[in-house]
Amino acid sequence: MIRINLLPTKKSKKAVVVEKQLIYIVAGCIAVAVILGYIWVSLNGRISNLQDEKTRAQQMAADLKKKIKEVENYEKDKKALEEKIAIIEGLRKMQELPVHMLDEISKALPAGVWLSDLKEANAQVSLSGTAFSNDDIVAFVNNLRSSAYVADVTLLESVMTGTTQKVYSFKMTVKLKS
Residue 172 — very low, low, confident or very high, per pLDDT cuts 50/70/90? Predict the structure, then answer.
């Protein structure tokens, strides 16, 4: 008959030490795997958070670029509008100036003086005409000097013309106040 011994047998000391070392190595490997797994999860979480933060920062930068562009467009439109307003104001001033100029010249024109030419350029008016006497021309110059819209009157020439009747031709410049 065959006999089977079910009682534990004593293992050798060497086998017990190897078994313990094997258990420690496996436990150490499991511990290292757990630590590495924790570090991996932690780093993946940080990477994810940093990527989300990067995405938010890029979105914010894009929004700020749009706002900067809007501000630049606003400033450009504002500058264009200010230029248009300045042009309109200049046109209004220029619109009033010829009316006042012609009104003042017609008020200052004494009897016996006729204008034959009137040219305006850069707030300076060139006048030429005829008169019966130099006294009439002097009266015209004095009347222009007393005007509120005239800054300076310069009589350039006064020449007697005509053979049968004495007639004086004159040329003058008038600077207008702006």
Answer: very high
pLDDT at 41: 95
| Cα–Cα nearest to 97, from 148, 143, 140 | 148
Residues 93-114: tens digit of each pLDDT:
777 777 778 888 888 899 889 9
**CA 135/CA 112 separation, integer angstroms:** 10
CA 23 to chain centre: 77
Which residue pairs, CB below 8 angstroms and at least 24 apart, start in 111-118? 111/136, 112/136, 113/137, 113/139, 113/140
Domain architecture of the chain: domains with CATH: 109-176 (3.30.1360)
